[in-house]
Amino acid sequence: MSILAQYEEAFESGDRDLLDAIIHEDCKFYPHVGGAVMTKSDIMAFAGTDMVRTESHRILFENDEVGVGHSIAHFSNGSSSEAVLAFYRYKDGKIIHVETGATPLSDDYKLIGQ
Description:
Helix content is 22%, strand content 46%. It has a single domain (3-104), classed as Nuclear Transport Factor 2, Chain: A, CATH 3.10.450.50. It is built from 3 helices and 6 strands, in the order ααββαββββ.
């Protein structure tokens, strides 16, 4: 199973043992909001909770150095759900860098031209 597939499964299920095994100790997560920088412990604290739930995972690209994934994220704080594009960098077979970009989704969203 690929690193991203393992990460998605572990994050959704809250499997902290697997997350601990695949996230590098020096991992930094750069979310798309507010200039925040999170660490491995922050990622593990969100895993398996209703604070953030993700679905419709797609691995767009992955090799031994990097991965790119897309998913839909839902938040418990009332924020709009988002379509999230995430870039992952690997070191020693573990995730060491995560950076996201996102598009808020709304019920009234329409594709251009429709």
